[in-house]
Amino acid sequence: MLFFGKKIEPIGLDIGSTYIKLVQLKGSDRHYQLVKYGMVPLPPEVIVEGAVMDSGRVVEAIKELLAKHKVKTKEAVISVSGSAVIIKRIAVTDMTDEELAESIKWEAEQYIPFSIDDVNIDFQKLGPGAMEGQADVLLVAVKKEKINDYVNIAKEAGLEPVVVDVDAFALENMYETNYDMGAGTVALLNIGASVMNINILKDGLSAFTRDITVGGNRYTDALQKDFGMTSEDAERVKRGEIVEGSDQEQIAGVVASVTEDIVAEVQRSFEFFRSTTGSDKVDQVLVSGGCTRVGNFTQVLSERLGMSVEIANPFQNIKVDAKKFGAALLETGAMAAVAVGLAVRRQGDR
Ligand SMILES: Nc1ncnc2c1ncn2[C@@H]1O[C@H](COP(=O)(O)OP(=O)(O)OP(=O)(O)O)[C@@H](O)[C@H]1O
Ligand SMILES: [Mg+2]
Description:
Blueprint: E1 11-15, E2 19-28, E3 31-41, E4 47-48, E5 51-52, H1 55-68, E6 75-80, E7 85-93, H2 97-108, E8 119-128, E9 134-143, H3 144-156, E10 160-166, H4 167-178, E11 185-191, E12 196-202, E13 205-212, H5 217-227, H6 231-238, H7 248-277, E14 284-288, H8 297-305, E15 309-311, E16 318-319, H9 322-332, H10 337-343
Parallel strand pairs: 1-6, 3-16, 6-10, 11-14, 14-15
Antiparallel strand pairs: 1-2, 2-3, 4-5, 7-9, 8-9, 11-12, 12-13
């Protein structure tokens, strides 16, 4: 039982491999105000390819973040992403939600590369299917092990995880909160350190979702490999700093070729989207995540795709005290897209 009149506004906690992000919002339904905002870095070997190698360090980092920003709220919305998450649009025999809840497990089996007992399954009816008597359903399967890892970390940090979301859907909620959903096709991209989340919305509904294990780590890996740099130096170079004894021209060449690789992945996914859904081209691209801060990444993405690419502003439609948060948001705001999408969720949501 909730305390009378008290509405819980959980924190959105995006546990990324490079930064843990915290966002708390007051309000509801596209009328939000920013209450808490913060980030804490994680060393490179703590979360690798989405797998938590050192949960103790993650717990410590979360505690540090909560203490620094004097967060009193225990309720938290967290998320998972990457290869442990399967999102698919499938066609099933039309039935009621209750019937579907019973049978989805059997339906799902053929679409999931893991044992059905190892995943948590959720679904959402999208509408009538292409064939008579069928329904289109969005199937979401997440490895239990992954959920348990992240839930346990949140609990050990003293939090109560009330919703476990998926990055790609958080991105969609960030979009709905800040942008006007019109007709047309909008691709939401969030390119972090190890994972790129793609969610393509058609006339306001998710038509294609995919996580690809590609991100900013590609730059650091290539710089370390090609120049024998330490990971610290590679990270500095990626951020545009000059490291003594390094050849600027060669470095620029490596950075440029990694950018081309990442952009090519985006192109491949867009082509796959077009060929599998029979849709027209993507009209608009909104990109977020740390990769947007690498040199001319966004510009190259726009040139190769042949369309305008905008860096997302996850706070565009959120009331912000500029004195308190302005500087931080300007610097790191584009990396908070998932955290904002988590912070708009409320307990009891599905
Ligand atoms: N100023 C900057 N210049 C260049 N790259 C940056 C800058 N700041 C952060 N990055 C890079 O952005 C990435 C982190 O972005 P983000 O916070 O979106 O990822 P994450 O959520 O921690 O990772 P993931 O979700 O993939 O586990 C890292 O690869 C980091 O090196
Ligand atoms: Mg991330």
